[in-house]
Amino acid sequence: MLKVDLHCHSNVSDGVLAPAAVAQHARKAGVDVWALTDHDEVGGIPAARAAAQEQGMRFVTGVEISITWANETVHIVGLQIDENNAGLVNGLACTRSGRDNRGREIANQLAKVGIEGAYEGALKYVGNPDLMSRTHFARYLVEIGVCANIPDVFKKYLSEGKPGYVPHCWASLADSVNWIRGAGGIAVIAHPGRYRFSQLAQGQLFDEFKQLGGAAIEVVTGSHTPEQYPIYAQLANSYGFLASRGTDFHAPGESRVDFALLPPLPANVTPVWHDWF
Ligand code: AMP
Ligand code: MN
Ligand code: MN
Ligand code: MN
């Protein structure tokens, strides 16, 4: 059986390894079909594609778009996109554009609770000046010993209601799905089990996504607990969605699940790649 992994990050967004190094890391862990899905950015794709081909892996183009839906941040993965499509490229550029100012505001807020120099500190971890992420702040706060690990930083500082949280309005659900489909791609709701929606709201998100032409949800991801795999497999089937799978790898030792350790999709779903090869 082919090992397919369709969600991970390089230092072109908030991962640590360069795209080619992520490809090597995935291949070593036995991945046969691989997508790089950096946040709001397709700039890593050429290097990722070349490295994947060198490693003998099938490459799938990808991106993970930040959107705001019902006042929450949701992530929509696009697969099999044409990364040069103008509508997609322009939409992503627009989505990225507020990130630097947001980073400065995060740093201002952290300074108010006694953490100085966080903008410059986070910047040390940024591989792409267009893509300052909360993850970069989290790495810095761990570095200076304010928190023991990255989830702890999010819990204490970077999530809603905490002193380093700056609300941000991302793209809309409709924009993201239209950009992906306009670029010939397949839209996938990333890690649906991670959002804090009621069952009712989650159902509304799925319905709206389906109406817009969304095709799949992630079922097995490093951002789900193993208990969530069968729940989202069942939901994929009941909504008529295809199922996707990917580690959401960010860095060796940092991500919950590395490429070799993520289980396969449950047998009762239709994989998003069912008609690709
Ligand atoms: P941003 O796009 O700048 O808002 O940052 C979002 C990123 O932060 C996600 O893609 C994850 O990589 C990371 N993240 C969000 N919440 C958590 C958490 N609770 N623990 C660890 N990483 C998180
Ligand atoms: Mn991330
Ligand atoms: Mn995500
Ligand atoms: Mn991700």
From TrEMBL:
InterPro entries: 35NBP, PHP_dom, PHP_domain, Pol/His_phosphatase_N, Pol/histidinol_Pase-like
Residue ranges annotated for the Polymerase/histidinol phosphatase N-terminal domain, each copy included: 4-69
Gene3D superfamilies: 1.10.150.650, Metal-dependent hydrolases
GO molecular-function term, one example from the UniProt record: 5'-3' RNA exonuclease activity
SMART domains named in the record: POLIIIAc
Organism superkingdom: Bacteria
Cited NCBIfam families: nside_bi_sphtase
Stated name of the protein: PHP domain-containing protein
